Structures are given as structure tokens and as C-alpha cells.
Amino acid sequence: xxxLRDLFGCYHTPLRKLAHFGLYFVLGxxxxxALRDQRLVPNVPAAIVLNALYAxxxxxxxxxxxxxxxxxxxxxxxxxxxxxxxxxxxxxxxxVRKRRxxxx
Length: 104
What we know:
The chain is mostly helical. It has one domain. Helices cover 74% and strands 0% of the residues. It contains four helices and no strands. The model has no long low-confidence stretch (mean pLDDT 85).
């Protein structure tokens, strides 16, 4: 069976880590968008905490998969991706709100 590791060799680990960061970045964007209130104020801290808990639960799940194991570094990387996405979404919301308030 041909594995990604065979195709990409020494690039396998960095690509996998980048993919995790990217996927959690999108999750951070999405969850921050979902957690906004009626005034369109996103709840960035809650999104980051929920993403961190999800990353930790994903790593816990890996402890039951043969050939895999939980790593704290993966939780930190996933949380960094989610936090980056959440902070970006929060900043975008602030920019839009500020722009809407500007007189024409």
C-alpha cells in the first residue's frame, strides 16, 4: 500500500502539521462566526477554548488507535491554528462594524 510518507518522504511530517494547522484555522473561523451575538460581536475567547478542548479530545481519541498516540505538541499546534482563525474572524468583524459606523 502506497502511503503519503512514501510519496513525500521528509516532507510528510511538515505537510501533516501544516494541514492540521490549516484545518483548525478554518474551524476557528467557523466557530467564531457561529458564536457571535445579536450585535455581531464574535466570542473569540470561547471559540479558542472550545477548539482547544476539541483538539485535546482528538488527541485522546488517538490513544485508542493502533500506531497512533496523543501528543501535547499536536494539541498546541491545533489550538494555535484555531486561535489564529478566531482572532482573524474577530478582527474582520471589528473592521466591518467600524466601517458601517463611519459617516459617508
